[in-house]
Design goal:
heterodimer, A: about 140 residues, alpha/beta, Rossmann fold, 5 helices, B: alpha+beta, five-stranded antiparallel sheet, rod-shaped
Chain lengths: ~140, ~600
């Protein structure tokens, strides 16, 4: 950890089963001044996220993609996380699957899509854009 | 002795003795005073005894004694009587009483002439029994075609005849039949037979064969005819059923999509259907009556015929057409045991060309689908690796810029790991996409299992896993040992991973080999984490892995490909948190034939 997390820094959560992707995203965002929670087990993510109260969530649509989709609909149903912008980070062209699932469960569309491979600049850009849309300041 | 009177007395005495009719002379006390030989032969010597003692075995005179009546009025009289012989047997006889008068006209004696009717009576009874009991309708009709007499069977079915015409009773007609056998008999006095359709009392059609014969002839004229009608309705129905069944059988055989041949014991073709003509590519006239050449069917007939009436086995073999073309077929057969005549063999052949093509197409389609999945999965896998490489470069360059050696090391490790993943991916992808056909040889399946299991022994000990085997004695089979080795390695490796992920204190991996119903079965069971529904759905999808960066997601796909090349199948059962069993089944008859050993030793 190159920088101690600030109490006032915006909090970003990343859920991905790829260990190297988690490491990369965590380091890149921490370098930019965010506080990061990196999670590799989607099935156990919800409780951790509700406690962490992130300002932005980065979600991989993991294979099998249904696991990512179902976590997305759970996030949209959570009273704590309902309004937190979610950015989908995936190697899959999964917009259709996600839109179908969102429509079926009444959850709105995600705040944005990031297609892998993703570089640090694009990642930070997407996170900052999501934060400004939700009226939250960015580091 | 005066000539004239003497010979007269002598011949009278002789005639009295020799005449084939019993004569007895009785006095007014009904005592027998004389009897001839014929009487003696029937009733024994009764001279001096009463006639009722001798002929009836009675102690008192008969109720209506004819002799007494004749003694009274001198009239001749006769009647049928039943006497009893000395042995107690009844004697039917006709008795005729004739008065013997003296010079004064009185009747001091009567002569009783008895004619034995026993034989006639017996014959009459026999004819009556025959008439009544013969299992057909017997009637006597007069010239008016009215039934005057009928037997038991007729009366049972048509009731007691009350003077109806025979055509009314048998056919419910109101006029004579156009071809009446009785009429012909009345005309020519001969016997006639013809077939007739009648109607029974319940209105159903009945079939008869009617024979007629003249019965009573007076002055050469037939006054009555006896009609014998045999009910052949059931026979007629059976015949119709037989014809129908035959027509059905012929249609089934002729229109069967399978080629059917029937061979006699000398292998001569006695029947060939349309499909057989098509399969052997020749007109059936060139088949029927000719010996089927040995080469026309590749296997022996006794291999395809079910034993002891059991079900016929299905044998995959080949036939050779009249034009010398070899065709793959599935054969079965059975032996026909006719009631009479010699045994024959039926052969049923299913042309497998279309099925083989479909099987190949299905396999190709599965491969194509797998390629599609592979491409999609490949893109996803490569994108993750690229992100990992991107991350590695970011972390490394950040570390270099800040002279942070730990971070440089972290980034470098990320780069190394992801480059390693790329090479593993490429290697597995090549293994999978190689169109290599397996190189099957006769191998002992147990040896392959033992070999693979030995490779995992050390790893099992390191991780405190129990690795066990249950290996049955399975006969050698034609398999690509290397391919099966790869399959088992993949399955055991997966089982180990499932155990390690589960964090259970003691996990077990069991490798089994056995044979059931001509199927060689390999089984790998673990008591590890098991699969949930979603993982099960994705198990055979290329590049799907639950092992994060530790797997390429090609293992099961490659396993399935190898198993399918051996004509086998992969199945699995799994429960989340309880464990998983993977099962490879190889039906022996679908195994590829072993390839020829190469002589150069390569």
């Amino acid at each position: 950890m190159s920088r101690a997390p600030s109490l006032h820094a915006p909090r970003v959560a990343i859920i991905d089963d790829e260990e190297d992707v988690l490491t990369f995203v965590r380091i890149a965002l921490e370098d930019a001044g965010f506080t990061v929670e990196a999670l590799d087990r989607p099935t156990e993510a919800l409780a951790t996220l509700e406690a962490f109260r992130p300002h932005v969530i980065l979600l991989d649509l993991l294979m099998p993609e249904q696991m990512g989709v179902s976590l997305y609909t759970e996030l949209r149903a959570s009273p704590v996380l309902r309004d937190v912008p979610v950015i989908i980070v995936s190697g899959l062209n999964a917009r259709d699957t996600l839109q179908e699932a969102s429509a079926a469960t009444g959850a709105g569309p995600p705040a944005g899509y990031l297609e892998k491979p993703v570089d640090a600049a694009a990642l930070l850009d997407a996170v900052r854009r999501a934060l400004s849309h939700s009226g939250r300041g960015t580091p | 002795m005066k000539p004239g009177t003497d010979w007269k007395n002598s011949y009278r005495a002789n005639v009295f003795e020799e005449i084939p009719c019993g004569i007895v002379v009785i006095d007014r006390n009904l005592r027998i005073v004389d009897q001839n030989l014929a009487f003696t032969n029937i009733f024994g010597d009764g001279r001096g005894q009463t006639c009722y003692e001798v002929t009836r075995g009675r102690h008192t005179p008969c109720a209506e004694c004819l002799a007494e009546q004749t003694f009274r009025d001198g009239q001749r009289r006769s009647r049928e009587a039943v006497g009893v012989d000395p042995a107690g047997k009844p004697v039917h006889h006709l008795v005729q009483i004739t008065p013997i008068r003296d010079e004064t006209g009185n009747v001091p004696f009567v002569a009783a002439l008895t004619t034995d009717l026993s034989a006639t009576k017996r014959l009459q009874r026999e004819y009556q029994t025959l008439f009544e009991k013969v299992p057909c309708y017997v009637t006597v009709v007069n010239r008016d075609y009215r039934v005057v007499k009928a037997n038991t069977l007729f009366r049972k079915v048509f009731g007691e005849p009350t003077g109806e015409h025979c055509y009314q009773l048998f056919k419910r007609r109101h006029e004579r039949c156009p071809e009446c056998p009785a009429e012909q008999t009345f005309l020519d006095g001969g016997s006639h037979t013809s077939s007739h359709v009648g109607i029974t009392r319940d209105g159903t059609a009945a079939h008869y064969v009617v024979s007629t014969a003249p019965l009573v002839q007076t002055d050469g004229e037939t006054t009555h005819v006896i009609e014998m009608a045999l009910d052949v309705t059931r026979l007629h129905r059976l015949e119709a059923e037989l014809l129908r069944a035959n027509a059905l059988r012929e249609a089934l055989v002729e229109n069967s999509p399978y080629a059917i041949l029937i061979l006699d014991q000398r292998r001569r073709v006695v029947l060939a259907n349309r499909a057989a003509e098509k399969l052997w590519d020749c007109d059936r006239s060139t088949l029927i009556g000719h010996t089927l050449p040995r080469r026309a069917i590749a296997c022996r007939l006794d291999e395809i015929v079910g034993r002891n009436g059991g079900p016929a086995p299905l044998v995959d073999s080949t036939i050779v057409t009249a034009k010398g073309v070899e065709i793959p077929v599935r054969l079965s057969g059975f032996t026909l045991h006719p009631v009479e005549g010699e045994r024959s063999t039926a052969i049923i052949a299913q042309d497998l060309r279309e099925i083989r093509t479909l099987e190949r197409e299905k396999l190709d389609a599965e491969r194509l689908a797998a390629v599609g999945q592979t491409v999609a999965g490949l893109a996803h896998g490569i994108k993750n690796i690229l992100t990992g490489l991107e991350g590695g470069m970011y972390v490394t360059s950040g570390g270099l810029a800040r002279h942070d050696e730990a971070r440089v090391k972290q980034g470098w490790e990320m780069l190394e790991r992801n480059i390693g993943r790329v090479s593993a991916l490429v290697k597995n992808l090549l293994a999978f996409s190689r169109g290599d056909e397996p190189k099957p040889r006769l191998v002992r399946p147990a040896a392959i299992v033992a070999d693979v299991v030995s490779l995992f022994k050390e790893l099992a000990e390191q991780h405190d896993l129990v690795l066990e085997t249950e290996i049955s004695d399975v006969a050698p089979a034609s398999m690509d040992a290397e391919g099966i080795h790869t399959c088992l390695t993949n399955l055991i490796s997966n089982a180990f991973d499932a155990c390690l992920v589960s964090h259970k204190p003691m996990c077990r991996v069991l490798v089994m080999l056995r044979e059931e119903n001509e199927e060689i079965i390999f089984e790998v069971t673990d008591t590890g984490c098991g699969m949930d529904y979603e993982v099960k759905q994705k198990a055979f999808t290329s590049f799907f892995t639950t092992k994060g960066s530790g797997g390429t997601g090609l293992g099961l796909l490659l396993t399935r490909k190898i198993v399918q090349q051996h004509g086998g199948s992969v199945t699995f059962e799994s429960s989340s948190n309880e464990g998983t069993t993977f099962r490879l089944r190889f039906p022996r008859r679908r195994l590829p034939p072993p390839v020829e050993e190469e002589h150069n030793g390569s």
